[in-house]
Amino acid sequence: LMGEYFAKAVIIATGANPKKLGLEKEDTLTGRGIHYCAHCDGRFYKDKTVAVVGGGNSAVSDALYLSNLAKKVYLIHRRDTLRATNVYKAPLEKSQNIEFLWNTALTDVVFDQKVIAAEIKNLKTNETSGLALDGVFISIGRSPASELFKDILNIDEYGYIIADETTKTNIDGVYAIG
Question: Which of 5, 19, 58, 95 has its CA 20 to 30 A from that of 86?
């Protein structure tokens, strides 16, 4: 709908998009073996083997959720410790089917009618290897969908629209939520 509209208030709720790894086939395989929401798509991997990429609260939460569905969950993290808060430590220690792949990056996904494996690289040794998988969940953060407003509203260094506790932005009558 093109044109000029007048309103007493405008509420911006553009949300955020999952960050991607930048794999060559990532866009093609999204929803076909590569996923960004364990709670949305995890049920398709009951009794299967999956990987979760990331090390923050979202990745650990996704791995724990998937551990109740999948036969095996690999948690692939590029560092040697998690950034996730300590509240996740006990549940992770109790889990019998989560395996940590520290100092590791997922570098490619092997697809033959479905995801069958991932190529991973040890970041300390630069050694690459294959990992048999049925699915990959990427949980490395989100990017705000605020590009449309970058020259109009105040935006922080991460791309989020700056709003106060009442959701007001730097323009009267414009509010940002979410």
Answer: 19
Tell me if residue 164 is catalytic: no
What does the alpha-carbon distance between residue 48 and residue 36 come to, in Å, rounded to a whole number?
A: 17
Q: Is 37 a catalytic residue?
A: yes
pLDDT tens across 52-77, in order?
A: 999 999 999 999 999 999 999 999 99
Give the separation between CA 97 and CA 118, rounded to whole angstroms: 18
Q: Of 114, 117, 176, give the one whose Cα is nearest residue 150.
A: 176
Q: What is the torsional sign of CA 103, 136, 39, 63?
A: negative
Q: For the whole model, what pTM was predicted?
A: 0.87
The residues near 64 (Cβ < 8 Å, ≥ 6 apart) are 88, 91, 92, 95, 98
Q: What's the rounded Cα separation, in Å, for the pair 29 and 108?
A: 11
